[in-house]
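Help wanted!
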Amino acid sequence: MSAQVRIMRTRDWTRPVPPVTREVLSVPPVTDEGRPPVLFVPGFGHGAWVFAEHWLGRVAERGFPAYAMSLRGHGASGAGTDATLRAYVHDVVQVAAALPRQAVLVGHGAGSLVVARAMARYPARAGVLVAPVLGGWTTLATALIRNPLGTLPALVGGPLRLSRRQLFSRELPVALARSYVRRLGAASATAQWQLLAHRPPEPPVGNPPVLVLGSPEDRVVPSDALARTARRYAGGAPLLFPGMGHDLMLDARWAEPIEAIVDWLAKLPR
Amino acid sequence: VSTSTDDARTDGGAPPTHGRRPVDDRGDTVCVIGAGAAGLTAVKNLKEHGFAVDCFERETAVGGAWNWRHDRSPVYASTYLISSRPFTEYPDFPMPDSWPDYPHHSQLLSYFERYADHFDLRQHIWFGTEVVRVEPADGERWDVTTRSTGGYGAERTRRYAAVVAANGHNWAPKVPAYEGIDEFRGTIIHASAYKDPAQLRRRRVLVVGAGNTGCDIAVEAAQQAAACWHSTRRGYWYAPKYVLGRPTDQVNDAALALRLPLRLRQWLFHRLLRLTVGDLTRYGLPKPDHKLYETHPIANSQLVYYVGHGAITPVPDVARFGHHRVELVNGTEVQPDLVVLATGYLPRFEFLAPEILGTDPNGRPTLYLNAFPPGHPTLAVVGLFQPDSGVFGIMHWQTVAVARWLRLRRAAPEAAAAFAREVQAGAGRRWNRATVKESTRHWFEVGHIDYLRGVERTVRSFDRGLAAALGNGA
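Answered by r_m:
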């Protein structure tokens, strides 16, 4: 039984999230056929640039207006030192509502949790969860086993450090992988804690179709967690891209997942 | 989806007619009347719930009352929101957070235009088309007759599965019948004709009415006119737009969130107003004759300030008009050359026979949740309320309730019977814990917390009904 609709949102009414400048990168479609805009939401520590590397251009080539944003405290967006999960959700809904048409929301990693919560506030045209990290204690356990040195500081309020081995496959040249890891930032300590312990997202509004995809070799998202997310949000199995790391949009074979996403989007009723 | 209304159709193959007129049968389509703040969200939410929608709008653009270009728009150059942004916006389409706490009406219009474009609503709207009649047809369907605005062109009748009336209630001016009003040699205008402070410049102005509009105009007259009298029938609370450095409604709802009892909240806010605004009688204003929350509050930080500077002279109610003077109920008189009647508006549903909405001789319909008329399950009114808060969010949830109701009725008619009984039993109920003052201005006031809780309960019961029906394989 899914959660009930919630109308009384006293916190949103009485304590609105403070405004911030938000980085939004965009690539216009090669031919505008009235396709919905696609908004990419990066995970913790990642900025809009991770999608600008490859995915935005490919989406635009296939006729969809492509956008990527940075959550507060990430990339070129304004400061978000004590940002909460609610502030990140606010950022996504603000950017989505400013787009000219009803948008498709694509979340990666912990950005999937932000997107899942944003879909309860904004009627997305569709939702795509890429290598979703929906949090909880198993997320922590996985991270501790795979990357104890990067994860332990996060337990005492420090930044979560993701390693090259967690994010990328061996196919990606080491120098490039290192340069990507150097560009990573960190989410706020509050949001990191909220990733572990938070109320489950309210049901999405407007009943959007949802696609879940990931890699069976992802060292951040265990396969069973991916399958669970797909069952819950998409009502089926995830699309799998074997041999890839957690950062599907930067890894060597970045083209395969994005082509699959656009194929799925192209099939949505107009 | 096959529906029960399909089966109830009695046309038997022959094209449907209403009397002798041919009727264009629009099948399961829902008709929305008006493309203002309420109509737009009705179209959007009906569409989102899978309904085909036809919307009729008498003007040639969206925005209704908030579009200053429209004949019937009551906005004036200095109209700002009186509730802050988070209370006012559609909950699923927030206003930009770079906007001020209290946006200007021109920002509101751009907001509605963006809403219409974002959700691709314009393709459903027939602009420049007014609804002349809405009449019941067989099978709880409705015949909607339209023509071009202004009465040109032939009438056309279409048959709909349901009708949502979102025609607004701030466009038909209410003018009290004052004795001697015809003898008065000065100018008398209703606030709906007030557009720009230049109209007040160097005039001797009497503003009648202490609604938010009356107070705004009195404040503008204080800055522009040669003299300004402000006539009110009784004492009011003038809530500043900010208390404790935050928008007043946000502070107020923080107290509500603590679930403090009404009396304690009234006491707290009386204390707070006493500290921020002070004793109104010291300024020569009458003492409020009611407790806070008993009428729609006036949000105006400047009125008391200008009274304190002598730029506004508070006076009691008007008794009668003379040639060049206006007599007041306390026996004194003032000599204005411009009278602005900020005496409000009356809701009007000319296209519906009065008995359908259970309208009494004072024009007051009897509805459940201010939206559902008893005995007409496929008709709903949206936007007919005056909250102690912003309106667009409440309109959104009203139309979600209407859409889910129509969906439940379609999918599980037997589950819908319980709600029909609730509508019958609860029609006319007030959604405000405080006792509301009796006045044509106050009858459709709602407390936003009580009202939204009522809507939340209703929507959840629809969802449960639908889940149960689908679970049973219906």
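OP: Thanks! One thing I noticed: The longest helix of chain B spans residues 448-471.
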